[in-house]
Specification:
The protein is of the alpha/beta class. The protein contains 13 helices and seven strands. The structure holds guanosine-5'-triphosphate and magnesium ion.
């Protein structure tokens, strides 16, 4: 399978993803040998975030066409934190991206991730590693719904595109959700609706208020009409400009951030298992107030002391 994978066989990729999703122990082995074969990844990993209905799927779809027109191969990972199954909200995206299905240069995969850390499946990072090793030039990550998963996506992606709309209160929502901080590129989608210029000024004002120096990357603020495919070339260009800004050192730091996210997910997973398997006698002691939950936690996690 490794051989077929390295030769670019999409069926081998699909099988490898299934291994990861089913938590098959051979998946780790595969990932490690792939990482040794393909040391450097030049993929652009792009996270698309924004409120439900902002136009993430529409824009991703248009960006796929833009990448394909340049001959680049593209993968899309749709992450649905609301569902334990793939389906539901994801289905619409599949249909919308349907016309790329015949295209061998486009790979679309949906993943459910309910119950996973912050809504972003721990398997997502593994699958992402596979897509990078496979050699896609562009990899888009898209979530359905709002919440923590948007911020998580920024920990995993190299470039985070925040999709806003001129609809009332979008900027306010973005400030609240901490999305301003994670944006590498803003796009005001639905720029055909009134209020796009005003929103642009609000974001710019907010950026200038924040701490900055001569090295600060001011996320460019674009306007797009996803449904008309307007502004798509400029959006892709802005993403590529951010890549150039990051350079190899910036990219290295982003990847460290991803590793930290991955480690955090692994630790939480282990801790959760330990908690679930804790003997009832220990639970009873906590319940009676004989010991604190923290003391038992340290014990079941194998810590010697509070450090
Ligand atoms: N007027 C207008 N409508 C748009 C534009 N872009 C997308 N839409 C429409 O907005 C609706 C939502 O777009 P989606 O791409 O599904 O939005 P999304 O962010 O992926 O939504 P979720 O996946 O549910 O979070 C669709 O009906 C699109 O046709 C635009 O630029 N202008
Ligand atoms: Mg969508």
């Amino acid at each position: 399978m490794l051989q077929q994978f390295l030769e670019g066989d999409l069926r081998a990729l699909a099988r490898a993803i299934t291994l990861i999703e089913s938590a098959d122990p051979r998946a780790d082995e595969l990932l490690i040998s792939l990482r040794q074969q393909r040391q450097t990844s030049s993929s652009l990993v792009i996270g698309m975030t924004g409120a439900p209905g902002a136009g993430k799927s529409t824009l991703t779809d248009a960006l796929i066409s833009q990448c394909r027109s340049k001959g680049a191969r593209v993968a899309v990972l749709c992450i649905d934190p609301s569902s334990p199954f793939s389906g539901g909200a994801i289905l619409g995206d599949r249909i919308r991206m349907g016309r790329h299905y015949q295209d061998q240069g486009v790979f679309v995969r949906s993943m459910a991730s309910r119950g996973a850390l912050g809504g972003l499946a721990k398997t997502t990072v593994g699958v992402l590693g596979l897509l990078e090793a496979f050699g896609f030039e562009f990899i888009f990550l898209e979530t359905v719904g709002v919440g923590q998963s948007e911020v998580d996506i920024a920990s995993v992606a190299d470039h985070t595109v925040v999709v806003l709309t001129p609809a009332g209160g979008d900027a306010v929502q973005a400030f609240k959700a901490g999305i301003m901080e994670i944006a590498d590129v803003f796009t005001i989608n639905k720029a055909d609706l009134p209020g796009a210029d005003r929103l642009m000024r609000e974001i710019r004002a907010a950026q200038e208020l924040g701490a900055h120096d001569e090295n600060t990357w001011f996320a460019p603020i674009l306007q797009t009409i996803g449904s008309e495919k307007e502004g798509i070339a400029e959006l892709l260009e802005a993403i590529q400009n951010h890549r150039n800004h990051l350079g190899s050192e910036g990219l290295r730091l982003r990847r460290l951030e991803r590793a930290r996210f991955e480690l955090n997910a692994a630790i939480q997973e282990l801790a959760r298992t330990r908690a679930k398997n804790t003997e009832s006698s220990l639970l009873e002691q906590i319940s009676l107030g004989v010991v604190t939950a923290r003391e038992v936690a340290l014990q079941v996690l194998g810590f010697q002391n509070l450090d």
